[in-house]
Automatic annotation (TrEMBL):
SMART domains, per the entry: HTH_LACI
Keywords from the UniProt entry: DNA-binding, Transcription, Transcription regulation
Single GO term (MF): DNA-binding transcription factor activity
Organism: Rhabdobacter roseus
Pfam families named among the record's database cross-references: LacI, Peripla_BP_3
The UniProt record lists the keyword Transcription regulation: yes
CDD domains linked to this entry: HTH_LacI (cd01392), PBP1_LacI_sugar_binding-like (cd06267)
Protein name: LacI family transcriptional regulator
């Protein structure tokens, strides 16, 4: 069990003031009166409060370490994002410290709760795909830890900066490409329900179908995970239908590859009989046969933008919430060629 530390919530409760006021007082910002600041410091001392290194009003030294919280490091997308982050961090004299959650909400929560007392200057975080709540991140913000979310981000209950790609636009373009290639019965195998990334891509899929007056069927929209194996399972489920789709849009390339493997095992010609569209532009999309049409995500640029936004935040005395949205690009290959 973690030792119980005094937090700024305890100080706020003792003084009957807001957590935000305590945080500002500890950082000695201009919008807190000297009297309030003195009261906060007195109670902090009485409760043996130990500020973390991010309380910049009290500790002016930087450790030049930035945390990066990610679900996995083994796939192309996240390794490319980290490369972009590393480039920017290195240019500014910072090191990255990686924390892997294995896409587990429980592990994510434990890691984040233990980060409260570390000497990190800030955190870049991509949330677990199955997380149900994000209060542990609020604890970091309450303790003045600069935080930027990237790629998979929580809802707007956590007020901090975010860097994402335009998942809606990318999905809309992907489905529109399938339609313009001659497919009319398009299914979508997507990620976990409720995740913002998943919902944005699903909405782009649905809106493209509606724009072209094509059927929207609940059994052709399948929520699951992000793995190749889940792509195979989703494709098997689609093929069990008597009225099977003539195209599959997958939430990422790994699931698209899973669908291709299932189609090939069943002797179904990919592209000619059933088109397959991915989302990532993983190198495997050019190796698999037939080559995979996809939406190229700006992974490297997203990594750079995320790290730069966090470094900008470290330089400012007052926090301004920002959201950066990057555009993706359609890449047409053989898996969506009907002729």
């Amino acid at each position: 069990m973690r030792p119980k530390y005094t937090t700024i919530k305890d100080i706020a409760k003792a003084l009957d003031i807001s957590v935000a006021t305590v945080s500002r007082a500890l950082r000695d910002t201009h919008d807190v009166s000297p009297e309030t600041r003195d009261k906060v410091l007195a109670v902090a001392a009485a409760l043996n409060y130990k500020p973390n290194f991010n309380a910049t009003g009290l500790v002016h030294q930087s450790t030049h370490h930035l945390g990066v919280l990610i679900p996995t490091i083994t796939n192309y997308y996240f390794s490319t994002v980290i490369t972009g982050m590393q480039e920017v961090a290195h240019q500014h004299g910072f090191n990255l410290v990686l924390y892997l959650t294995n896409d587990s909400p429980e592990r994510e929560q434990r890691i984040v709760q233990n980060l409260v007392r570390t000497s990190l200057d800030g955190l870049l975080a991509c949330v677990s795909s199955r997380a149900a709540e994000y209060n542990h991140f609020q604890e970091l913000l309450d303790e003045s830890m600069p935080l930027v979310f990237f790629d998979r981000v929580p809802d707007d209950t956590i007020k901090t900066s975010k860097v994402v790609q335009d998942d809606y636009e990318g999905a809309f373009k992907a489905v529109e490409h399938l339609i313009q290639s001659g497919y009319t019965k398009i299914a979508h195998i997507t990620g976990p329900k409720g995740l913002q990334l998943t919902e944005n891509r699903a909405q782009g899929y649905l809106d493209a179908l509606r724009k072209y007056n094509l059927p929207v069927r609940s059994d052709w929209l399948i929520y699951s995970g992000f793995s190749q194996q889940e792509g195979e399972m989703d494709a098997e489920k689609l093929l069990e239908s008597r009225d099977r789709p003539d195209a599959v849009f997958a939430v990422n390339d790994r699931k698209a590859v899973g669908a291709i493997l299932v189609l090939k095992r069943k002797g179904i010609r990919v592209g000619k009989e059933i088109g397959v569209m991915g989302f990532t532009n993983d190198p495997i999309s050019e190796i698999v046969s037939p080559t995979l049409s996809t939406v190229a995500e700006p992974a490297y640029e997203l990594g750079r933008a995320s790290c730069q936004l966090l470094l900008n935040q470290l330089k400012k005395n007052t926090f301004v919430q920002e959201q950066v949205v990057l555009r993706s690009q359609l890449v047409a290959r053989a898996s969506t060629q009907r002729i």
